[in-house]
Task: structure prediction
Amino acid sequence: MENVIFCTGHELLVDDIIKAENCTVYDSKGKSYTDFESGIWCTPLGHCNKKINEVIKKQTDNNIHTGFCYVNPVLQESACEILEVTKLRNGKCVFLCSGSEAVEFGIQVSNVLTDKPLMMTMSDSYLASYGTANKKPVNQWYLFNWLECSGCKNHDNCDPGCDRLSQIPFEKISSFVFEPGSSSGLVRFPPSSLITNISDKIKEVRGRGLMIAVEFNGDKDNCITRKIQHGLLQQRFFIATRPGANTIRLDPPLTVSKDEIDLFLCAFQMVLDEMQ
Result:
């Protein structure tokens, strides 16, 4: 990989993965690994999902590009199915290329519809890789630091009359962009009662679904997380870490089997036992 720039901050563990199926990936020597990372990205239904691949292959044989002034009927068909699933049968869809685009589009629409100057999110939200959702300038965003609530005596039963909540300028906020669990990769969840008190006053809530993380105390240099990641790699499991954070992340595809989860748990326990 001499001619490739890796700028994610993550360590490249294997550079010759050439095949993948559901939760398993294979290197050029045929060695297999169970992938507990890819579920957060574009493979929540598993690698090389046969049903999805068949649809993609069929469409590429017919038409793989639409322009500004012409489209393929599959666009309308997809929109109708999405609206049926979401029970928004009289709604409309917009199709974008990434989560970052979706977040940026959503907040811009919210601003136009409400004519209010601010968006609100938690101070540790990631949201997007570019745009105002990434930069979060103070003249466009109100960032609520919910971590300051962790020591509150009402932590599990947030008081709607709390002074911190009363300081939020709800009259200026067009939308609340909620990213539960990501917390810039650390997978932390604000108290549900806090979110209820905020969302009762703001109309839009967004999320990213279920994620699992294990955070380690006293791991200043990420030695523990690296040892666990490399130990699980020896057991043929891929997991995610976060550069500069003492956290490992588990984001398997939704198609992961109970047997694969059980094997992972056994391997995880073995790695932890060897570290003691």
User: Anything to note?
Assistant: The chain has two domains: 17-48+211-275, 97-199. DSSP finds eight helices and ten strands in the chain.
